[in-house]
Amino acid sequence: MGYLGRFYREHLKPYILAIVGGMLLLQLGAMCHGLTTTMLRYVFPAAKTADKVAETGIFALVDKVQASFQHLLGHLLGNGDALRTNAYALPALIVLLFFLKGAFTFAGTMVIVKSGIKATQALRERLFRRTLDMEPSFFHKHPVGELLQRCINDVAQVQGIASNQLAEAMKEITVALAMFITVMAMSWQLTLAVFFAVPLVVFPIQKLSKRIRSVNHRNMEASARLLQRLKEVFTNIRVVMGFAREKYEVERFHHQQHELYRLGMKAARASFLTHPIMEMVGGLLIAGMILFVVPRMGQMGWDSAKFLTYMVALYAFYDPIRRLTKLNNEIQASRASLDRIYGFIDREPLMKTPEAPKPVPAKPQALSLEGVRFSYNGKDEVLKGINLEVRTGETVALVGGSGGGKTTLVNLVPRFYDPTEGRIILDGTDLRDFDPRELRTRIGLVTQETLLFMDSIHDNIAYGKPASRESVIDAAKKAHAHDFISNLPQGYDTPLAEAGASVSGGQRQRLAIARALLQDPPILILDEATSALDTESERAVQDALEALMQDRTTLVIAHRLSTIQKATRICVLKHGQVVEVGRHDELLAKGGEYARLHALQFHEH
Ligand SMILES: Nc1ncnc2c1ncn2[C@@H]1O[C@H](COP(=O)(O)OP(=O)(O)OP(=O)(O)O)[C@@H](O)[C@H]1O
Ligand SMILES: [Mg+2]
Fold first, then answer.
1. Is the model more confident about 505 or about 72?
2. How far apart are CA 32 and CA 462, in angstroms?
3. Helices 166-186 and 304-345, interaxial angle, to 10°?
4. Which among 42, 184, 354, 555 has the fewest CB atoms less than 10 Å away?
């Protein structure tokens, strides 16, 4: 059972009464339906249902049940005399029964659907919350497509268990148990003998169950890859179109679809094989009865009526089991999804909040890196012993060739990663002793890829924090963004398309700067854009950055000469080491690595 049991305990239990209640309502609906057919027979009282049972033979159990309804009705209505004396009574009763049937069925379905949706949404929310608890490097290992797959399709797969599958399984089990007692009472010896068929059913079903689980798992993985592919194509649509690779993408898509088709067929084969297996076993049972029991009926003291009754009861026992195996297939597929969902829920975040986190100082005085070493893969060191101190109000510029480790270094400060060796200290406390979320509220981050959400400009600047329009406008003004925002059709309420496609690169950066200004963090991390903006944007972004850096502790990956010249200190990073530290003029005069970089980068200045 494993995760199935856990899912039941953790998410289904609160709804189990509702699900069972809903199932009972559906049963009531079915009974009303049964009654209407029974009542129709009152129109032609000569048709004796009891005889019909024998006529249609052993498979007409339904008729038998209805016969007892009729019997009951006969008692209640004085053999239908009341119905026959009043011409309107029967039609009225039938209309009422149809109405009740509809009402019960609707109510029962609604109750079950509601429980199913609620239980699975609780699971999905838990999965989402857990995913956000993961350390940032988790998201490198699990691409967006996979996360979407688990949060959407795996959870949807589970919804079946949370609604009808469970209730139906319970119903079938109850019927099977009742019928089992009946056949045991009629002849326990014969019933035990029938059980030779059990392994014939159990072994293949077990094997098929396992197969369904593994195929469904692979199916979910393949659709995760497909989702990832779609996400990449749609987000990089300009590259796809720019290189005219539509045909190539469609071909790749076709191949991935083919993989899904193969797995889908595999799943269907495993799933629908149970049906012929169950039919075969049923046939074997009937044949066995005819071969072994019929010649010995006299010996056993059975007449043909008793034999037929036994067969009817045996079939009534076998039928729910057959339906259970079909249900089992669906449950197995859901189990594979549950495994995947709980795989994430049970994964401990590698970056834990300490038991007793120290409060993060509101106005920290100094941020220092002490002998910081870092490796992404545990082999190649990207940072090889960095020592660096940034005091409040200072701006430290990181410069250096591509791949020197600048981005890696600044990513350690908000603890997107932790140093492999050495430590980072804020006012005497190791960053690892803080609650990472609290730490991050003190750090403003403006990166090269400025990420915007599909909300209004106002909501993008405020991002998740309640902020008055005045404070948003104030931040936008400081970020030199107010003018262009005011010119947008709906001003601050203009919705942004995905990834900010409706604003220019420079405008986007200024929105991100406004966001950081509104957050007003004491520590600031800037990853300056390398992309050349036009002079006017460049000027505006530059002014915005300067407004942002005022009175903050700033660590900036600098490409702009003006930022570098104004920096308190410049650190030149090369192959993961600080090779030079100093002011612009000092480093230029020294004629080392910085002078070389400067000559390469700014020869035009
Ligand atoms: N997520 C990652 N996983 C593994 N290796 C990485 C990862 N990010 C960066 N690296 C490696 O770490 C090294 C330093 O990369 P980093 O991004 O810190 O350089 P950088 O100084 O910011 O360069 P650039 O100026 O081009 O942005 C590079 O060799 C890079 O291949
Ligand atoms: Mg970088």
1. 505
2. 58
3. 150
4. 354
Contact 159, 345 (CB under 8 A): no
Question: How far apart, in whole angstroms, are the C-alpha atoms of residue 540 and residue 559?
Answer: 16
Report d(CA 35, CA 29) in Å as an integer: 10
Cα angle vertex 491, ends 488, 492, to 5°? 130
SS3 526: strand
* Residues linked to residue 398 through DSSP beta bridges, in sequence order: 557, 571
What is d(CA 521, CA 533) in angstroms, rounded to the nearest whole number?
26
The answer, yes or no, to whether any atom of ligand 1 lies below 6 A from the CB of 407, is yes
Question: Who's near 565: CB < 8 A, 6+ residues apart?
Answer: 584
Domains by residue range for the chain, with CATH: 3-345 (1.20.1560.10), 366-601 (3.40.50.300)
DSSP lists the bridge partners of residue 383 as 374
* Lowest mean per-residue pLDDT among 51-55, 372-376, 388-392: 51-55
Is residue 447 in contact with ligand 1, taking CB distance under 6 Å?
A: no
Amino acid (1-letter code) at residue 286: I
Pocket test for ligand 1, best of 138, 372, 376, 411 (most atoms within 8 A of CB): 376
**From the CA of 527, which ligand is nearest?**
2
Whether 402 is in the pocket of ligand 1, judged by its Cβ within 6 Å, is: yes
Cα–Cα distance measured from residue 232 to residue 226, given in angstroms and rounded to the nearest whole number: 10
Listed in order, strand segments (DSSP E) in 394-481 are: 395-399, 421-426, 429-430, 443-446
- Rounded Cα gap, residues 567 and 430, in angstroms: 26
Q: What is the pLDDT of residue 56?
A: 37
Tokens 């720019």, residue located: 242
- The per-residue pLDDT for range 486-545, each reduced to its tens digit, is 988 888 988 887 555 578 877 888 888 889 889 889 999 988 765 555 666 677 777 778
| Nearest CA-CA partner of 321 in 195, 193, 175 | 175
Nearest one of 503, 493, 495, 448 to 472, comparing CA atoms: 493
Let me know: does 500 contact 450? Beta carbons within 8 Å.
Answer: yes
Q: Give yes or no for residue 120 CB within 6 A of ligand 1.
A: no
Burial class (CB in 10 A: 0-12, 13-18, 19+), 561: middle
What's the pTM value of the predicted model, to 2 decimals?
0.80
Ligand 1 atom closest to Cα of residue 409: 18
DSSP category for residue 354: P
- Dig out the tokens for 240 from the structure: 């796809």
Instruction: Indicate which ligand has the atom closest to the C-alpha of 138.
Output: 1
Task: Give the position, in ligand 1's atom list, of the atom nearest the Cα of 137.
Answer: 1
Q: In what order do the strands lie in the sheet with 553-557?
A: 443-446, 523-527, 553-557, 395-399, 569-574, 577-582
- Residue whose CA is closest, atom 6 of ligand 1? 376
User: Which helix (H) or strand (E) element contains residue 385?
Assistant: strand 381-391
